[in-house]
UniProtKB/TrEMBL annotation:
<feature type="binding site">
    <location>
        <position position="497"/>
    </location>
    <ligand>
        <name>Mg(2+)</name>
    </ligand>
</feature>
<feature type="compositionally biased region" description="Basic and acidic residues">
    <location>
        <begin position="713"/>
        <end position="751"/>
    </location>
</feature>
<dbReference type="InterPro" id="IPR027408">
    <property type="entry name" value="PNPase/RNase_PH_dom_sf"/>
</dbReference>
<feature type="binding site">
    <location>
        <position position="503"/>
    </location>
    <ligand>
        <name>Mg(2+)</name>
    </ligand>
</feature>
<dbReference type="InterPro" id="IPR015848">
    <property type="entry name" value="PNPase_PH_RNA-bd_bac/org-type"/>
</dbReference>
<comment type="function">
    <text>Involved in mRNA degradation. Catalyzes the phosphorolysis of single-stranded polyribonucleotides processively in the 3'- to 5'-direction.</text>
</comment>
<feature type="domain" description="S1 motif">
    <location>
        <begin position="636"/>
        <end position="705"/>
    </location>
</feature>
<dbReference type="InterPro" id="IPR001247">
    <property type="entry name" value="ExoRNase_PH_dom1"/>
</dbReference>
<feature type="compositionally biased region" description="Gly residues">
    <location>
        <begin position="753"/>
        <end position="767"/>
    </location>
</feature>
<dbReference type="InterPro" id="IPR012162">
    <property type="entry name" value="PNPase"/>
</dbReference>
<dbReference type="GO" id="GO:0006402">
    <property type="term" value="P:mRNA catabolic process"/>
</dbReference>
<dbReference type="InterPro" id="IPR020568">
    <property type="entry name" value="Ribosomal_Su5_D2-typ_SF"/>
</dbReference>
<dbReference type="InterPro" id="IPR036345">
    <property type="entry name" value="ExoRNase_PH_dom2_sf"/>
</dbReference>
<dbReference type="GO" id="GO:0000175">
    <property type="term" value="F:3'-5'-RNA exonuclease activity"/>
</dbReference>
<keyword id="KW-0963">Cytoplasm</keyword>
<dbReference type="Pfam" id="PF01138">
    <property type="entry name" value="RNase_PH"/>
</dbReference>
<dbReference type="Pfam" id="PF03725">
    <property type="entry name" value="RNase_PH_C"/>
</dbReference>
Amino acid sequence: MLTQKISKTFDIGDGREVTIETGRLARQADGSVTVRMGNSILLATVVATEEPKPGQDFFPLSVDYMEKFASAGRIPGSFFKREGRLNDYEVLTSRLIDRALRPLFPEDYFCEVQVIITLISSDAEILPDAMACLAASAALAVSTIPIKEIISEVRISRINGQYKINPTRSEMAQSDMDFMVAATMDNIMMVEGEAKECSEEELVEALGIAHEAIKVQIRAQAELRDMAGVGPKRDYPKPVQKEELRARVEAIARKQMEDASRARQSKADRKDTYKKIQEQVMEALRQDAGLGEGESLPDDVKKLAKTYLADLQYYVVREMILNDKVRLDGRGLEDVRPLDMEVDVLPTPHGAALFTRGETQSLTTVTLGTPLDELLVESAANSEYSKFILHYNFPPFSTGEVKFLRGPGRREVGHGNLALRSLKQMMPAGDFAYTVRVVSDILESNGSSSMATVCAGSLALMDAGVPFRKHVGGVAMGLITDGQRYAVLTDILGDEDHLGDMDFKVTGTRDGICGIQMDIKVDGLTLEIMSNALQQAKRGRMHILDAMHNCIAEARTDVKPHAPRMVKIVIDREYIGAVIGPQGKIIQEIQRETGTTINIEEKNNQGEVGIFGVNKEGVDKALAWIKGIVSVPEVGTEYEATVKTIQPYGAFVEFLPGKQGLLHISEVSWKRLETLEGVLNEGDVVKVKLTGTDPKTGKFKLSRKVLLPKPEGYVERPAREEGGGDRRDRGDRGGDRGGFRRDDRPRREGGFRPQGGGQQSEGGNEA
C-alpha cells in the first residue's frame, strides 16, 4: 500500500504554481521527490553509500538527467526504439545540476552519491531544465545525506524588456537574455547562459531578481523537509588525519614551495619542481622513520604526505596572491598572457585560425555545408534542426599526458556548448544559406581552452567569409578569497583554477556580453564581488578583442575559391512545383546540368530555394535557370536568347529558362531575308525584345530587329487599311511589291502550312 504523500505548493511569482511532493514514488531511495509545473513532472532520486570505498580520496558524485520519450507521448526514433545514452541536451542539464550541488557536500565526505532526475511527464510549453536542480536539491533535502545547506536554480530571461522567471518555451523565442542561476539563501553558486550583448549592469540586475526567486524555492524545500519529519543528517567516516605528519611535511617543504611559487616557471617546469619537492619530502620522511636502502614508507603515510603537500601548495599560492598581488607566472592580477593569432593557416579547410594565449592554444576550422547537413537536435518535447554546429576536442597531448582516446565526455560537450552559445549571437540571420560547422582542436592547455575556442572560432568564421557581424572574445576569471580579503584574477592558469575559489568565464563583443559560465567552490560570492569581477573581465576582453581586430578586422567579402558556393532565393509558393517539375524532372535536370545541389523548403507560405555547388559558374547557372522559371516575362524587356531550332519561317529561341518563343524571319533584320541560313545557327545567343503576346494563344512575340539601328533611308511600309475599300485604283499588284505572284510570294505571318497539310505547326508562335 502506498504511503501518504506529502506535498508543498508555491507560487513562482506570476500566478503559476509549482508543487513538490514526496513519500509516494521511489520510496527505497534515500530521498525522492516529484516536482510539477503544469503538465511537466520530474522525478528526482538520490542514493548514497554508507561508507567510502577503501582508499577513496575524492568525492564521487554522479548526476544524470534524462528524458523519457513516453513523457511526451513519443517513441524514440532510434533503431532499437528505446532511449540510449544521454544526448547533449541531457548532458548539459546534468552538468548544470552537478556544478550547483557539488559545493554543498563537506570537503571530507567521500561516500558515493548518485542523483538521477527523470522527466516522466512533458508539457510542450514548460522547459524542464529550469526545474531539474530544484528537484535534485529537494530530494537531498528530504534525505539524511549530509549537505551543508539547501539550494535551488531558476532560469531568468528578458522578454520585451521585462525579466521573467522560468518563461515558457514560446516566450523564449522573444528572449534576448537567457541565464540559469543557482544559489543558496545567501550566495550565488552557479551561472550559465547567453545574451544578445547585454551590459554588465543588466546581468547583475538579472542575477539579483533570480536570487529572490530562488529564496522562495529554498523556503518551500525547507518546509517540505519539516513536513516529512526528516531526522538529523547521517554521520559518515572521516578520513584519518595525522597532524604531526602534516606539521613535518610543512616544515620540510614550506620554503621550497614558496620559492617554487615565485619562480615564474612554465607549466611543465613548475610540475617538475613540485615533483622534486615531493621526492625530497618522501626521502626526509624515510630518514625520519629510520628506513634503510630499498625500504619505502607505508602506503597510508605516503598518501597522507601527498595530501598535506597539496594542501601546503594551496595555502602558499593563495597567500602569495592575496598578500603580494603576484601570481604563479609573475603577472599582475589583471594581466593577460601574451597573445598570438593567425588566420588562413590551413590550405584546404574553408576557414581556419590558430589562437595562442600563453600556454593555451586552439586550432579551429570552419566547414561550410548545405541545408542537408543540418543537425537534428531532439528532446522528448520537440525536435528541431540547427544550422550552426560547434565541436570541441581535448586530446591528451594538450596537457602532456598519455590517455586513451575516447568519444567526447561531459567536459567537452559543456565547453563546446559555451563557445557555441557565445558565437551564435553574431551569426548571420536566417537568409544565410550555409550550414556551418566549427571544430576547435585544443593543442595546448593551461587555463581556459574554452575561451581560446571562442576567440579562434570568431577568427576562423571571418576567415571563411561567413558574414560574422563582430568579433566575439572571451576571458576566464578566477577568485581567491579567505572570507575577508579577495583577489580577482584575469586570464587564469590551470593551477589557479585548481587552487582558486571561482572559475568565471565571460564572452562578448565590444558592445556587451554574449555568454557566461560561472562556478563557485566556496560560499561568500556577493553581488558586489560579482560586479567587480565582471568589470575586470570586460577590461580583459577588450584587450583580447583589440588583438583579434588587428589580426582580421572584418569578415572576408566572399568565401574562399575552393569553398562551396551557396545562394538562397525566396520564390512564391505557387512556383515550387514548377521548379521541381513532374516527378522531379526539372530540378534533377538543373542539378545534373549545373553540378549543383538544390534544396527547396516551404516556409511562411513562401518557397526557400538553396543552391549549393563547388564552383561559382554552376551556382550562377542554376540560379539563372530557376529565376527564369519563376520570373514572369514583361513586354518591352530585353533578353539574351539562345537559338534552339531553325525553321524556314524563323527561329525558336529560349529567352528565359523553360520559356521559348518564335523569332519570326521578318523580325530578325530590317533587311528582307529569304532564309536564315548564314544569319542564325542553333546555339547562337542573340539579344531580343519581348514585343507582346498572342491574344489567342498567349505565345510570346519576339523581335531582334527593333534592337538594331534602322538602315539609312528606310521607309516604313504603311499599315493596310481595315475593311477592304476600292480595289480598282491600286494599280499593278506586282509593281511596287517586286512582282511576286501569289504562288511565290513570302508566306504571310501566321499563315504557314507545313508540307503534308493537315496539322498546324508551331509557326503560330510567331511574333
